[in-house]
Amino acid sequence: MRILLLSRNAALYSTSRLVLAGRARGHDVDVVDPLEIQIVVARGEPSLSCAGHRLPHYHAVIPRIGASITRYGLAVLDELQRGRRAVLSGAAAIALSRDKVRSLAVLSRGRIRVPATVCLRSASAVDTALTLVGGPPVVIKLQHGTQGVGTMIAESSRASHAAVETFCAMGQEIVLQQYVSESEGRDIRAVVVGGKVVAAMRRQAPDGEFRSNLHRGGSAESVDLPRRYRSCALKAAKLTGLDVSGVDMLETRDGPVVIELNSSPGLEGIETATGIDVATPIITLAEELVQTAQRSKRKPGRRRQAAGHRRAK
Ligand SMILES: Nc1ncnc2c1ncn2[C@@H]1O[C@H](COP(=O)(O)OP(=O)(O)O)[C@@H](O)[C@H]1O
Ligand SMILES: [Mg+2]
Fold first, then answer.
1. Which CATH architecture has domain 116-179?
2. For the segment 231-271, what is each residue's pLDDT rounded down to a tens digit?
3. 182 CB-side CA count, 13 A
4. Which of 140, 161, 207, 211 is the most exposed place for a label (fewest CB within 10 A)?
């Protein structure tokens, strides 16, 4: 089958692993930068073009859309998923996961534990927010931040005011969140693909740092996921509707607390830490989704035929 891998850079570890895994299973895999795809709206059905030509047909689309191009990338993906292609994951699920407060709200409503979190757009609400999340120290994050950038601890009410005022003056939406001190700079990343946990690692922040992101110098080791962490990760992925996700959980005495889901989990860190091939299950999920789409495409045809029969009688 033909697979379209949406990625800005074919040389990235995750992209090249997916290309290799797809080709190893006999598929044609093209890497296309979503910014190189134009959405053409003229009359009727919009079309997609790339380098002056209509985008060829693909059976499956694997989006690896970075945070810096979320808007455009998801507009392209939204068009792609209208054409009966298998898409891992859909634009709506990715958009949800990029919004820290909205995704935590979905998880919390689904009875998953999340840290107490308040979304702010103005510094006037800081005192109320601090009370709601249990007072300082608190974690302050950019609502759409990623890779640990813009995530900090504010040790006091004063520090919280200063950080929120600065971010708000820059026009940023802020998340003020309960600091889960028990996690001590550690978290668990579980990669969930099509309703299965395919690999999991525990990440540890370097000394003097609370963010465990590997981009921030964190280290990682393979972890045998306890049952409730496994079921929490699966439920979180299901609630957000992501076909492929990296579920980040803090460890507490009372079990997992989910802080976020990543729609394009990096493969390098998890494959290196666990020795598990994470790319192949993503390709096999694409195969399964294509088969399901083809089956459902055939069915309505059969139903139409049957209906015609009934009418003819
Ligand atoms: N509420 C919290 N309590 C304790 N540690 C946290 C909390 N929120 C985030 N962290 C730490 O900071 C890291 C980055 O935060 P996260 O919310 O995942 O933002 P990003 O999207 O930038 O990765 C997490 O991996 C975790 O180690
Ligand atoms: Mg994170």
1. 2-Layer Sandwich (3.30)
2. 999 999 999 999 999 999 999 999 999 999 999 999 999 99
3. 11
4. 207
Render the burial of 126-145: b for 16+ CB within 10 Å, e for the rest.
beebbeebeebebbbbbbeb
Q: Which residues pair with 152 in a beta bridge?
A: 140
CA distance 152 to 175: 11
Place of tokens 């990338």: 73
Residues 272-294: pLDDT tens digits?
A: 999 999 999 999 999 999 998 88
Give the tokens for residue 163.
């950080």
Which amino acid, 184? E
How far is ligand 2, taken at its centre, from the CA of residue 213, in Å? 6
Q: Does 145 contact ligand 1 (Cβ within 6 A)?
A: yes
* 166 Cα–ligand 1 center, Å: 20
User: Which of 261, 230, 250, 252 lies closest to 104, judged by CA?
Assistant: 261
266 half-sphere exposure, CB direction, 13 A CA radius: 15
In DSSP notation, 180-225 reads -GGGTTEEEEEEEETTEEEEEEEEEPPTT-----GGGT-EEEE---
Pocket of ligand 1 contains residue 147 by CB under 6 Å = yes
